[in-house]
């Protein structure tokens, strides 16, 4: 009887609810990887040094398991309400976690044994990719996160024997996943006319126009100016004050009259062409007029 | 006359340099032509081809100009001036073409270009993640971006496919193709358009001097 009473008394003692320890850890993205966030996966840093300071655990580091809870919107509060349950691992299987009329909005997936993540990592660059299993269908698979959602994450320390949660980290910040954009919005990258192009075009056009102008002016000055005065029978310009239409140079052996080109237009006198042809001809170069160049005949 | 001869000598050298530079662009060491060809905006190469001919023509005509200045004959100088002016017009066309082409590179096509250029995406590999594409429809579950984004060994195999999939920066090309191609295109544009422009400016002043010399002849 007394034994029964004692047993009863012990039974009636409120069994202290196994309180889940919250460690001061917060899951974070692995910033060094380029694919840290995609539309349905996230790459997190590994849960090192999070659960190593706990004592009085019913499992050792070889048997304690680390699990991950990705949760969206209401899933955070739903999970927190249910986390003490002994069936927590299968309460919200992955295939139905985000579907249906009132989805649980969270699921659990195993990350590894606690001994896999010692405090001091043997090799750098550890990561855990949430969503690595893709579109899977088992209860605790590491499946895709809902596209475009903003999930938060929490690591759990789970007793492999009882399948109950022993400890947990804090909720991470919500990480916004990408939503696929239409590639048409990439834009044509047409930033408008660059300054360099404007400078080059205007300067070159102006230069070409100026050159053309000057070329025409020079041609007009030189060629047209020369044409009215005759075509090259005399080298150089006409001496304007030398108005004798025709004259003889007396110091020659066989003098022939020289027609002054200034009077060529009037043609009222015989010219070189109409005279009987003599053998010796001469021309006066105004520049070197004091010397006569004779042609060899 | 000495000034004209010296300027012509300098312009001949500059024309030859333009000729060589334009050949360098036309040879296309950076293999830019396929991409520009796809987008239909390959005027930079048209500009380069024109510059090849004008550069060589400048060289020959300037040598002729030295001869014409030496001979002090009006007809020769006139021929020289007219030929130089025609070449000037063509070189203007080349510079302007090269300069305007630069503004037209299309970003959209670069997302889809997976060629030998060592780049990934338009601005960065994240373009493959953020934007929808045929690639994403087909392979989006396994690969965030095509394996062309991954660094390869000399045997053409991917150096580290796991690292590339998760995005380790040491195993993949992180520079966007737009940035890469834009920088290469800038190099070509600087060559053809800006150097051509500086040659044009020099030739412009040289032709002015030559015209003055021409009026003094005879």
Automatic annotation (TrEMBL), chain A:
Q: Does the keyword Cell division apply?
A: no
Membrane-traversing stretches: 196-221
Q: Which InterPro entries has this protein been placed in?
A: Uroplakin-2, Uroplakin-3
Keyword hit for Transmembrane helix: yes
GO biological process per UniProt: establishment of planar polarity involved in nephron morphogenesis
In terms of PANTHER family, this protein maps to: UROPLAKIN III (PTHR15446), UROPLAKIN-3B-LIKE PROTEIN 1-RELATED (PTHR15446:SF2)
Q: Name one GO cellular component term.
A: membrane
Pfam name, any one:
Uroplakin_II
Per UniProt, which keywords does this protein have? Membrane, Signal, Transmembrane, Transmembrane helix
What's this protein's name?
A: Uroplakin 3b
Annotated organism of origin: Astyanax mexicanus
Where in the sequence is the signal peptide annotated?
1-19
TrEMBL record, chain B:
| Record Pfam families | Tetraspanin
- Assigned keywords, A-Z: Membrane, Transmembrane, Transmembrane helix
Membrane topology field: Multi-pass membrane protein
Annotated membrane-spanning segments are 46-69, 76-99, 192-214
Cellular component terms per the entry's GO annotation: membrane
Kindly give the InterPro entries that the UniProt entry links to this protein: Tetraspanin/Peripherin
Protein localization: Membrane
This protein's superkingdom? Eukaryota
Protein family per UniProt: Belongs to the tetraspanin (TM4SF) family.
Indicate what this protein is called per its UniProt record: Uroplakin 1a
Organism for this UniProt entry: Astyanax mexicanus
Q: What is the lineage of its organism?
A: Eukaryota, Metazoa, Chordata, Craniata, Vertebrata
């Amino acid at each position: 009887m007394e034994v029964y009473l004692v047993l009863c008394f012990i039974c009636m003692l409120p069994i202290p609810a196994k309180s889940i320890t919250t460690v001061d850890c917060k899951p974070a993205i692995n910033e060094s990887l380029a694919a840290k966030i995609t539309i349905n996966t996230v790459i997190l840093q590994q849960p090192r040094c999070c659960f190593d300071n706990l004592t009085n655990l019913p499992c050792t580091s070889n048997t304690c398991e680390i699990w991950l809870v990705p949760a969206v919107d209401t899933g955070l509060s739903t999970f927190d309400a249910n986390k003490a349950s002994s069936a927590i691992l299968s309460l919200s299987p992955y295939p139905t976690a985000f579907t249906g009329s009132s989805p649980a909005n969270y699921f659990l997936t195993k990350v590894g044994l606690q001994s896999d993540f010692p405090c001091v990592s043997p090799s750098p660059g550890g990561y855990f990719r949430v969503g690595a299993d893709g579109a899977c269908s088992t209860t605790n698979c590491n499946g895709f996160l809902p596209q475009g959602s903003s999930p938060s994450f929490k690591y759990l320390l789970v007793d492999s024997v009882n399948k109950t949660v022993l400890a947990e980290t804090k909720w991470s910040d919500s990480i916004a996943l990408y939503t696929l954009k239409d590639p048409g919005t990439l834009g044509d990258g047409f930033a408008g006319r660059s300054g360099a192009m404007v400078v080059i075009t205007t300067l070159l056009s102006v230069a070409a126009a100026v050159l053309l102008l000057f070329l025409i002016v020079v041609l007009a000055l030189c060629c047209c100016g020369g044409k009215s005065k005759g075509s090259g029978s005399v080298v150089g310009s006409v001496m304007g004050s030398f108005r004798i239409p025709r004259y003889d140079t007396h110091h020659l052996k066989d003098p022939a009259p020289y027609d002054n080109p200034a009077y060529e237009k009037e043609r009222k006198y015989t010219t070189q062409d109409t005279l009987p042809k003599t053998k010796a001809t001469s021309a006066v170069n105004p520049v070197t007029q004091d010397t006569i160049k004779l042609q060899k005949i | 006359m000495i000034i004209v001869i010296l300027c012509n000598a300098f312009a001949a050298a500059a024309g030859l340099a333009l000729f060589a530079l334009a050949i360098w662009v036309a040879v296309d060491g950076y293999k830019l032509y396929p991409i520009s060809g796809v987008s239909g905006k390959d005027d930079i190469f048209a500009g380069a081809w024109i510059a090849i001919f004008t550069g060589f023509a400048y060289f020959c005509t300037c040598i002729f100009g030295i001869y014409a200045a030496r001979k002090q004959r009006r007809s020769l100088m006139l021929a020289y001036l007219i030929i130089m002016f025609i070449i000037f017009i063509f070189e203007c066309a080349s510079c302007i073409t090269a300069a305007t082409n630069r503004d037209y590179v299309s970003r959209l096509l670069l997302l889809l270009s997976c060629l030998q250029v060592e780049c990934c995406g338009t601005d960065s590999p994240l373009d493959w993640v953020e934007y929808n594409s045929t690639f994403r429809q087909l392979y989006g579950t396994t690969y965030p971006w095509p394996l062309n984004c991954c660094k390869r060994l000399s045997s053409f195999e991917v150096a580290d496919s796991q690292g590339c999939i998760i995005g380790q920066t040491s195993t993949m090309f992180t520079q966007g193709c737009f940035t890469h191609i834009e920088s290469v295109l800038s190099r070509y544009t600087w060559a053809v358009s800006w150097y051509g422009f500086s040659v044009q400016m020099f030739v412009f002043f040289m032709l002015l001097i030559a015209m003055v010399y021409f009026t003094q002849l005879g």
